[in-house]
Every structure is written in C-alpha cells, then in structure tokens.
Amino acid sequence: MKMITLRNNGLPGWLAAICMLLFTACAKKDNQVKPAQPATGVVRPIGGLLGPATTKQIGADGGTIANADGSLQVSIPAGALTNTTTISLEPIENTNPGGIGTGYRLTPHGITFLKPVSITFSYAAMSSMISYPPALGIAYQDAKGIWQYMAEPVINTNNKSITINSTHFSDWTLMLWMFLTPQTADVDVNGDVPLKAVRVLPTALEGDVLVPLVPPEGEGIPVGDQVPLEKKYIKKWDLAGAGVLESEGAEATYFAPSEVPTNNPVAVTLALNLKSAAVTLVTAINITGSSISFRINGGNWQSMRATAFKSGDTYNLLAAEDGRVIDLKFESAVGFHAYRNGNNTQTKNSFMLSENNALDSYKCFYIDGEHILLSDGGITITSMGIDDGYITGTFTVVPSGRFSSMDGRYLGSANIDGKFRVKKSTL
C-alpha cells in the first residue's frame, strides 16, 4: 500500500525528494525556515445544506459511518464516546478557497471525543483532476469562519483516499493547497477560459523544499485567498487538444475553436520548474454549445448535446444521442432540488436516463426488498442564465434504479452523477 504523510518536519526521505522536485528555491546556509506569507487565513461563509443527512447511532464500543457513495467515512474508536450518540454526515456547499467536491457537516457540533476519530475522504471520483496528490489535504471551518488545513494528512494513492485524526466535529472538506483554477471548465465554442496557477496556504522553505507552514501552536494551518504561484516555479504551459493557449507567468487564457472538437475535453497543463522530473498541474476544459455530462459509478464522463425548455414553473433539460436520452426536470430556481421531500413523496424534480434505444432506463427511484424508494440526491442549480443565457448545475442520483422498458423488470442500481450547461429556450 502506497502511503504519503505530509509533515512540516521529519519528512520521509522519498517524500522530501518528491517535494524537492516540485518546489526548489534558494535556502540560507543555516536552512532556517522562512515563511512565504503570514498565516492569517480568510473568513468564508457557512456552506448551505445540499441534501439529506446520513445518520447512525454509535456508542462506547465505537463504530463507522459512511455516506451513500463512500466519498466520506468517519471511524470512531472504542472509548471515544461514553454514551450512545447520533452521528450525522450532512452534505453542504464547499466554501473552502481550495475546496474540491462536496463539503460535509459532521454533527453533533461541539462534541469532544475522548480519543481521536479518523476522517477519511475518497478522491477516486476526482482522480483525473488530482495530478499531484501531495497537494491534497483535509480542512475544517473554525468558529471564526476560517478554514483550517489539518497538518500531517495520510494519503493512500492506491485506493485514492486521504485521512486525518481529530477530537472534534465541524464542517469538513477535501481540498488542494496548490492547483490550476478553474480545475475544470465548460466553455462555449469561440469562448475563452482564463486560467491561473494558485496556492491557498502559507508556505515555508525547509532546506530546498517548499511545504505548508504549520504554526507553533494549533493543529490547523489557516487557509487564505487564492494567490498566484510564484513565477520562479512556472516552467511551461501546454495545450493537448483543439484551440489556442496564450500564457504569461502564472496566468494563461484558453481560446476555444469554432466547432466542438472530436477529442473533447481538452487538457491544459502547467509544468513546474523542476530539475529532474516532470510534475504538472492540469485543467480539463469541455467545449460545448449546450450539453449534459454524466458518469455511472464513477466511470468515464460522457457528454451529450442538450436543450432546455420551460413548462409552467418547471424546466426540462433534454439530451438525446446514440440511443440514449437524459431528461432532468426541476423547479426553475437556483438551489438544491431533491427528488423527495421530508415525507418521502414525489416532487416536481426528476431524473431519467434511457439506454439501448430506450430498452432500459435509470430512474430517480429504486427497489429495496418489497419497497419502491425515491433516490437520495437531487439537482443543484448554480445559475439560471441571467447573465449568459445558460442554465448550469450538477446532479446526483444515489442509487438510481435500472428498469426494463419492455416488462418493467428491476435490473439493479448504480450511483450516477453529472453536470450540465444548457442554453435556455422558451420552446
């Protein structure tokens, strides 16, 4: 099992070598640690809820709780609790300046465990955007609203997970402390995407290695605003795919072609200024006039051209291509739209993916024994296109039941997630 433990001192030799390849700078002869910026941090808003919570009763014997898709797991050892307690994982907006994926509110807030509990995030579903795993981390939001990067995360690159230990609950997120922004992007044909190489943590030189600077007191490193990566670490920007890329220092601009290319998305990479190894940061850019993208059980992303139309107070996003059809329905407002409400009854929000020329279909409900249950998850609208005319957002269906369109047989289930950027229409 390949493991990485990030520390501010006592680095394993092999990790120090990797870090030296990534960041090299002139160190003073006495190897004194010199901060690259003060450890101040930035206050960020509290993330809003995105869906239903996962809950479990755990007592003095300990136990483990995980969310439906396995992207977050909390393990509580025996003796950490004295009484049986309701443990809850609530998906929330990720307001961390370096955050990736969904954030989670772990409750009860204010609890102090008698022994450290382990918090593990999986980055398997986002592995294509993680080109340098040592830049990963886990952070919590403190009482002041500042995200705190936890020192000494343990990264398992074999199963693509990262773990920290803590004695308290709060809002938690997976994050990168160095990356290209945006990390992924959708752009219309003939459009452009500004890009920037940034970092969000204070850093220090230890010998010739640039590492996150851990304050003398406290378990966290305050997460600050995104600041450009220093020019001395910038080597070369590159584009793999159609379009044009212009760059200067830590910034670049991608210009999309006039037609959607056959090989889509394209990749923009930044090679860091290294002496003997090629380490890059990557952004994937999807060129589209209007599309819905999805994946099944964390597999490869698939994109389909899409249209939007409105009926009353409900929008339909529809894509049909190569024997497949996706239909998303939601109430036309920015925010989270669940497939079910608190009484577990049908709402106006729905998902359907038909395959094999409509011979079978994935739905936003599934069968558990003798019961038909509505799926967890929903449709999150981030923009209704007031500025650019595009409805944008994401969706999750956990799990999505698969049914035969011929005789209605239940064929099993899968977890489906996706994103969309669809041109508004009044058809």
Describe the protein in words.
- By secondary structure, the protein is mostly beta strands.
- The protein has three domains: 177 residues, Chondroitinase Ac, Chain A, domain 3 (Sandwich), CATH 2.60.220; 78 residues, Immunoglobulins (Immunoglobulin-like, Sandwich); 133 residues, no CATH class.
- 2% of the residues lie in helices and 53% in strands.
- The protein has one helix and 37 strands.
- The strands form seven sheets. An eight-stranded antiparallel barrel has the order 26-27-28-29-31-32-36-37.
- Strand 28 and strand 29 form a beta hairpin.
- The N and C termini lie far apart (55 Å).
- About 8% of the residues have low confidence.
Structural class of the secondary elements? mainly beta
Number of domains: 3
Helicity range of the residues?
under 10%
Quaternary structure of the protein: single chain
Write the layout of secondary structure elements.
Elements: E1 3-5, H1 13-22, E2 34-35, E3 54-58, E4 63-66, E5 72-76, E6 85-92, E7 99-107, E8 112-122, E9 136-141, E10 147-150, E11 154-156, E12 161-168, E13 171-176, E14 178-181, E15 184-187, E16 192-199, E17 203-206, E18 209-212, E19 220-222, E20 227-228, E21 234-240, E22 244-248, E23 251-255, E24 266-272, E25 280-287, E26 291-296, E27 302-311, E28 314-321, E29 324-331, E30 335-338, E31 350-355, E32 360-363, E33 365-368, E34 371-374, E35 376-383, E36 390-404, E37 410-423
Parallel strand pairs: 15-25
Antiparallel strand pairs: 1-11, 2-17, 3-6, 4-5, 5-8, 6-7, 7-13, 8-12, 9-10, 9-13, 10-19, 11-12, 14-16, 16-20, 16-23, 17-18, 21-24, 22-23, 24-25, 26-27, 26-37, 27-28, 28-29, 29-31, 30-35, 31-32, 32-36, 33-34, 35-36, 36-37
